[in-house]
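Thread: quick sanity check before group meeting

JM: Hey all, I'm pulling together slides for Thursday and realized we never actually wrote out the predicted structure for the chain we discussed last week. Dropping the sequence here so it's in one place. If anyone has concerns about the input, flag it before I start.
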Amino acid sequence: MSAGPATPPIRTRLTELTGIRYPIVQTGMGFVAGARLTAATSKAGGLGIIGSATMTLDELKAAVRDVRERTGAPFGVNLRADAPDAAERIELVIAEGVKVASFALAPRREHIARLKEAGLVVIPSVGARRHAEKVAEWGADAVVVQGGEGGGHTGPIPTSLLIPQVVSCVDIPVVAAGGFFDGRGLVAALAYGAEGIAMGTRFLLTSDSPVADAVKQVYLSKTLTDTVVTTSVDGVPHRVLRTPLIDALERSGPAGRLVRAVRSAAAFRGLSGLTWREMLREGAAMRHGSELTWSQVLMAANTPMLLRAAMVDGNSDLGVMAAGQVVGVIDDLPSCAELINRVMAQAHECLCRLRDQT
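JM (edit): ok, ran it. Output follows.
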């Protein structure tokens, strides 16, 4: 299917900052946002972001070079701020000439300083005003702000309230996330004062996404009420599809969760190459200053294994399937180019209609 002619751009501080044509960001989803999806997004005029948290250093280097071979357009890498090798990953993206660095958690001040010193654009993702204010003070160039409708780790404040609150508090560009899937949402975000939108679930459900077709069909079958925010996965609120695994985790007591956590941790250890001592050291760092139990710490440390079960292995009943509530209004699998052109065409139609009404 043809993607159709390119639609006119909408210029914002985000597009000027990153050099992209359209103010649309594809989030760095683990096991989903690899080279293929990232390159397809960037080539279509958005900002594709590699999800590096589930990659080894060598896999990340290969993914970056693969994207560069596919397109000369700007793209980014999403980094896990609390990863033991975060400093090494930062040096890798700098050495490879990546344009944008994003973070799933608020980065340390020194992370931002090092990346900016090397000329990268730094765009952390946050879910609360205080975190946006902190990274802005530390020198972040822009910030992705996700409302409670968003998938994965999320907060309680809806996008429609969180975005205008943050826009009023920081001077850097705000990218709105949580509940976006079309051009009407882009216009709404711009009206709130944002400089663009970020989408995860909508890009996961494209023909360029590497997720198995059977898993995509599970997503497409869901309604607006088929996601749940649970703390049973890793101890913090996580919006996911309700699956037999999630139901079992929520029914399990502490002992049952610990058994599942240890079993899954063992599998992740084999995949990642980490020793038990390294996993426990990382877990202790995650537990420091929090109220997580050790079973929750183990689950948090090996959540990538649970994501892999669904996203890579295609076992939708056995894995964790992060999803925004927007999954309930998505019913097709366009290419990234088709999706972005559709969003932009609809945004221009909305803007024209609004102008005619004033």
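AS: nice. The two ends are 37 Å apart (CA to CA). The first strand starts at residue 24 and ends at 26.
JM: adding both to the slides.
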